[in-house]
Amino acid sequence: MIELDGSQGEGGGQILRTALALSLITGQPFRLVNIRAKRPKPGLMRQHLACVQAAVAVGGGAAQTGAVTAAGAEVQLGETTLVFTPGKVRAGDYRFAVGSAGSCMLVLQTVLWPLVMAPAASTLGLSGGTHNPMAPSLSFLQLLAPHFAGGGPAIFDMTLRRHGFYPAGGGEVEVLVHPPQGGLAAIDLMTRGALLEAYAECLHAGLPRGVAERELDVLRKGLGWEDSQLRNRALRSNEGPGNALLVVLRHEAITEVFAAYGEKSLSAEQVARHVLAEVKAYMSHQAPVGPHLADQLMIPLALARMQGRQGRYWTTELTEHSRTNARIIETFLPVKFSCEPLEGGTVVSLAA
């Protein structure tokens, strides 16, 4: 039984999701205490409980996979301790609903890698939030999917049926997971290559049109972009209210996506300035991998290494979120991350 403390490092839900994924892959049970201890509302929220339930489902259901409290009771909302005993991962057709505006992309993050390691393809129907703060958005995962495969065959495809924003939720996504027949390819991202395309996209539903125009205007002035690089996408009103501002930079070797989300307490200009700051920080650097993608690449990097394929990537910033993720991966897999400084960034690889 692996013992984990959810208050370590960044103390959020990533510890839970990584532990669930790698427990299913390795067959190692774990006990996690102090779940999300450093968040304003510690314990399992709806999206985290949905992650646990999804992990049980792909592990053969409750008859094969156990997920209980320290006292052996069924896990509920707000629970701060989880004892997880994995069964054998089964490919199949699954449907998972967060039941709130919580991110269904975090549910995908939990079961993706176990299903990638399964012997056959799987389909997932996910419902909940598709574009959420503090979570990878559908746009992020969709555009960056090729990089998780390390240049090899695509390991998942996503089809958006309906956007889901906080607080209404209601997003719907179909995902096809197809395990690579020859195993995972090594990730090697040390250069960006030439810039091929750069654009901003404002998704909005149920909001005054002027909100999008004000956000895009901040980016126009801040980045010196032309009108052709600014996309105002009004969605169906029943998909909102909601607002996501995305900036996409597509280079020869890497695509990076930056996002900010509208909130009642923030002006359109504040939302745009948030994403503008992230984009400018990235553009001032030479490393190809941004801080959010750096975290997401750690599991496929480690799994490819377990198959004898050594990879590496250069990131602009290694966050505490990423460092915590690395420690959890090292707990389940016989790997050791190497994080070497390079020109203001960090080269992430696995020690020989």
Task: Describe, in plain words, how this protein is organized in 3D.
- The chain is of the alpha/beta class and 352 residues long.
- It folds into 2 domains: 2-183 and 308-350, RNA 3'-terminal phosphate cyclase domain (UDP-n-acetylglucosamine1-carboxyvinyl-transferase, Chain, Alpha-beta prism), CATH 3.65.10.20; 193-283, Dihydrodipicolinate Reductase, domain 2 (2-Layer Sandwich).
- It is built from 9 helices and 16 strands.
- The strands form 4 sheets. It has a 4-stranded mixed β-sheet with strand order 1-2-4-3, covered by helices on one side. A 4-stranded mixed β-sheet has the order 5-6-8-7, with helices on one face.
- Strand 10 (195-205), helix 5 and strand 11 (230-234) form a beta-alpha-beta unit.
- Helix 1 (14-26) runs parallel beside helix 2 (46-58) and helix 2 packs parallel to helix 3.
- The radius of gyration is 20 Å and the shape is globular.
Radius of gyration: 20 Å
Distance between the termini: 27 Å
Shape: globular
Q: On the 0-100 scale, what is the average pLDDT?
A: 93
CATH architecture of the largest domain: Alpha-beta prism
| Main sheet characteristics | 4 strands, mixed
- Estimate the strand proportion: 25-35%
Structural class: alpha/beta
